[in-house]
Amino acid sequence: MKIGIDKIGFYAPHLYVDMNNLAVARNIEPEKFTIGIGQEKMAIAPITQDPVTLAANAAVEILDETDKEKIDFVIFGTESGIDNSKSAGVYVHRLLGLNPRARTIELKQACYGATAAIQMAKGHIALNPESRVLVLASDIARYGLNTSGESTQGAGAVAMVMSADPKMMALEDQSSYLTDDVMDFWRPVYSDKAFVDGKFSNEQYILFFQKVWEEYKEKTGFGLADFEAICFHLPYTKMGMKALRTVLEQGTEEDQERLLANYKISTLYNRIVGNIYTGSLYLSLLSLLELKEDLEDGSRIGLFSYGSGAVGEFFTGIVQPNYRAHLHVDRHTKVFESRTEVTVPEYEAIFNKTLPVDGSTVELDIDSDPATICLSGMKDNMRLYINKMNRN
Ligand code: HMG
Question: DSSP letter string over 230-283?
Fold first, then answer.
């Protein structure tokens, strides 16, 4: 039985800052951000968007009534969750009007969370072929103003419906994975900003990629020639390229050209969104599927997932016949085109806005946020959400 990604939805908040302007404000040459890091625009979440609403907005565009009825498992991957107890997925479950006969949980392992969710969903569907699983990957990446990680922030979510006989991509069974306790990036529960050892994190990312790639080759006998493209977790778009380059010489000139050209296409969405942590790999996959118009059915795509701390995995999927008919390219083009640029001082003001932590009541201005699903306020330490379509 084929199991895999049946549908993919995406949402980024409607605000962004231009990386050239951020560089100027920080007294840095713009080329460091646009070429050295490889980022053009960075999505900024207004106070009315949090990981719950980003995920719900990503999912609302793909679910039909059959999905809502058949989804019996909601798995929310995030490392910027809003509650240490209640799963962010439970809010999304209500906001989307899903069938109550479902399991809903939240998973965390830095940027690896959504990959763990996908693998868990695959096992669930293998045992329950009729079921559909909603995998949500949603995060807001925050390092802080004027920090070296600042240029690698971002915000957004990817939602995927997983099923048997998927329309988009069937996952293959072989994969290789690795865990090692390293302190390259972490966020203690008392901090809303990540701590990072930047250079070390880059080294670990590359090391993990090399190790899982070598193990994958050993297990399967496959090599670069078997891949049409390899998508990477992209904390910034130069990162995957650094890892890819270390194995490219294993392929022929043709393999190298193909993989480099397709790598570029797989980074286009990430370049204008930034790091969305656990959704980043899947945003890269979406970029490839939507923007490479001549991607052929049956192509094998490699996926490298890395979550600091750290866990890495290399796994693969096969593009399904007629997959393009199920994409939402126009909708996503519109999401990007209708965004509003903010100045650096405006971005800083948004970054510094916080919600009350003393139980007081606040009502937020949801009319200035075009998203369908918003955080409308707080009361008694509870977040209040609204789906503008049905005022749920
Ligand atoms: P930095 O130290 O300020 O930057 O921070 P740099 O000095 O390393 O420069 C970056 C690149 O720009 C270099 O290129 C420079 O040469 C180049 P490279 O040598 O690396 O190819 N450069 C220029 N290029 C053109 N024109 C110029 C120019 N000037 C310099 N004028 C760093 C960079 C990524 C370390 C920092 O932003 C950071 O710490 N970010 C956060 C951590 C991160 O993203 N790590 C990535 C791997 S870990 C991971 O992916 C997991 C993660 O997503 C978290 C999770 O799992 O949850 C982060």
Answer: EEE--SSHHHHHHHHHTTGGGS-HHHHHHHHHHHHHHTHHHHTTB--GGGHHHH
Q: Is 326 a catalytic residue?
A: no
Q: Which atom of ligand 1 is nearest to the CA of 31?
A: 26
Closest atom of ligand 1 to CA, residue 238: 21
Cβ-based neighbours of 355, under 8 Å, separated by 6 or more:
47, 362, 378, 383
| Three-class secondary structure of residue 59 per DSSP | helix
- Is the bond into 117 cis (omega within 30 degrees of 0)? no
Q: Give the per-residue pLDDT at 392.
A: 56
State pLDDT tens for residues 255-287: 999 999 999 999 999 999 999 999 999 999 999
Question: Which one from 111, 124, 150, 290 is the annotated catalytic residue?
Answer: 111
Contact 152 CB / ligand 1 (< 6 Å) = yes
In the chain, the domains with their CATH numbers are: 3-167+327-390 (3.40.47.10), 170-323 (3.40.47.10)
- pLDDT for 390 equals 83
Low-confidence ranges of the chain (pLDDT < 50): none
Q: What is the pLDDT of residue 11?
A: 97
Given the residues 14, 124, 233, 332, the one annotated as active site? 233
CB-ligand 1 contact for 35 (6 Å cutoff): yes
Q: Whose CA is nearest to atom 20 of ligand 1?
A: 36
DSSP per position, 112-123: THHHHHHHHHHH
In the residue annotation, 374 being an active-site residue is answered as no
Per the CB < 8 A criterion, the answer to whether 370 and 389 are in contact is: no
pLDDT of res. 271: 98
